[in-house]
Design brief:
499 residues, six-stranded mixed sheet, Beta-Lactamase
């Protein structure tokens, strides 16, 4: 081209070049390297009252001749650099070299003094800026179809230009952003500039991209024409903020459990001393009885109630991670195998109980009586959650925990990396909502009319007392899985203890 070419730019396809010309506020043509007309934008036909057959596949020189015959004068940029003083029927021809589909061509713009492009004739700078901006830039028509999206927009959301041409804004908005976007459009077409927009896009891979930005409406001849928006991807920032909130929430929960544990432990010790006195005097009364069946009945009631209260204090001590712990190196699968009769006895006969116990587990340091209580609590809870003919699976295994493995545990335990043996109790019961899962291990929380209250919280206390962790997975009508982890004793750990 000899008509005052601007800087060359590269684009990926002819469609992208067509998008540029569609949004220009001046007549524009796209010509190939031989100056043959490939495309004309809407403004070209409106300004010059020409139709497509008259200019299709004609040379740029022929088109300029046609314009001259229709009373329009076109001055090439190299002949006249200034738009000042141009007559109303006179246009300045500016050309921009582009590359598309491995072919070189040009965008030819017909500028007048009142043309918006005349205020900044370096269109290539504008396009280059948009294409290399880190923020997402989009221009959509009033019906929501895309007129232009920049490279950052395409890269972040993962759509190709060919896909975008067949899509509308509603196709890339997350469901909960649809109504908000409609509200924004109503305000924008009234001339309002909407800033600090919080919006969510759905990327091609299904992930949600959170963005913040602003939009305004472009008017042509006093009527709204297109909506322009620029957005910054804040997904990573949102992820970090959410992670901080989760850490803060778990820290507060851990502190709550620590304080509750201290309180429960203190109460349990005092309460246990009182119970010992009650049971002691009950024994003295038995020794002094004169054979009265009525007195025997009363003493038995006192003793049985005291024993139930004693069991409750043991659970409170377990929740506090206190009590008499007798640690012994054991095989977790062997312990669960020994517990089979007990575990089967707490499950309704109509239900199926399966044991999947892994052979060759490394040893763990465990108080077998506390493990029995912890697993029994889980099985009782699973039994209550399942309907008649339900199924419960009790399994063991070993996992090599890497950094962050326990971040999704009940209390986000900060445990070292290494091998951990585990027991899992899985049921196909009614499952839990996320709100119930948040509170499931809190003392005395229950969703039943009359619940035990300390079962899961006692299990949590026992596991934490063994330097382990608890994980909970559940979904409505799909069941629940509770996993309890205990650190395995490796050869290196055993050597360290021996030394």
């Amino acid at each position: 081209m000899q008509s005052g070419q601007l800087a060359e730019i590269g684009v990926s396809s002819f469609s992208e070049v067509e998008c540029f010309t569609k949004h220009l506020s001046c007549p524009a043509l796209i010509v190939d390297s031989a100056n043959k007309v490939l495309h004309a934008n809407e403004d070209f036909f409106l300004h010059f009252s020409l139709d497509l057959p008259k200019i299709a596949k004609r040379s740029l020189k022929d088109v300029l001749t046609i314009l001259h015959e229709n009373g329009f004068k076109v001055v090439e940029a190299m002949e006249c650099r200034s738009l000042q003083g141009l007559q109303s029927q006179c246009y300045l021809l500016q050309s921009l070299s582009v590359f598309f589909d491995d072919v070189q061509g040009s965008i030819c713009m017909f500028l007048r003094g009142d043309s918006p492009e005349a205020e900044n004739p370096s269109i290539s700078d504008m396009i280059d800026f948009l294409e290399h901006a880190n923020d997402m830039v989009q221009i959509v028509s009033l019906d929501g179809s895309f007129l232009y999206v920049n490279k950052a927009w395409r890269k972040i959301l993962g759509y190709s230009i060919q896909e975008i041409e067949k899509m509308a804004l509603k196709d890339v908005l997350a469901d909960y952003s649809q109504d908000r976007c409609d509200n924004f459009f109503e305000r924008l077409v009234q001339g309002e500039v909407v800033e600090n927009i919080d919006i969510s896009f759905q990327a091609k891979d299904g992930s949600i991209v959170y963005a913040e930005g602003s939009c305004n409406c472009r008017f042509r001849h006093g009527k709204p024409y297109s909506i322009r928006g620029i957005f910054r991807d804040v997904t990573e920032r949102r992820r970090i903020q959410e992670a901080k909130r989760m850490v803060g929430r778990r820290l507060r929960k851990a502190e709550l459990f620590e304080s509750l544990g201290l309180m429960a432990g203190g109460i349990a010790h005092v309460f246990n001393n009182i119970l010992m006195i009650i049971l002691g005097f009950a024994e003295l009364l038995k020794a002094r009885m004169d054979g009265s069946m009525e007195l025997q009945y009363y003493i038995n009631k006192i003793e049985n109630s005291a024993r139930r209260a004693e069991a409750l204090t043991l659970q409170m001590l377990a929740f506090a991670g206190a009590g008499n712990i007798r640690m012994k190196r054991c095989n977790l699968s062997a312990l669960i195998n020994e517990m089979k009769p007990l575990l089967l006895s707490v499950v309704q006969k109509s239900k199926v109980v399966e044991f999947h116990l892994k052979d060759g587990l490394p040893p763990t340091e465990i108080d077998s009586s506390q493990l029995e209580q912890a697993v029994k609590n889980l099985v009782v809870n699973a039994d209550e959650a399942t309907r008649e003919m339900g199924k419960i699976i009790i399994s063991t295994g070993v996992v090599n925990a890497k950094e962050g493995f326990f971040q999704d545990s009940v209390l986000d335990e900060d445990l070292p990396e290494g091998k951990y043996c585990f027991v899992e109790v899985i049921d196909n019961g009614s499952g839990m909502t996320s709100k119930v899962m948040e509170k499931a291990f809190e003392p005395f929380f229950t969703t039943k009319f009359a619940g035990r209250g300390l079962g899961l919280s006692a299990t949590l206390g026992i596991v934490r007392g063994h330097k382990g962790a608890v994980k909970l997975e559940s979904s409505i009508e799909k069941g629940t899985k509770v996993s309890i982890f205990f650190p395995a004793v490796t050869n290196s750990a055993a050597a360290t203890q021996h030394n």
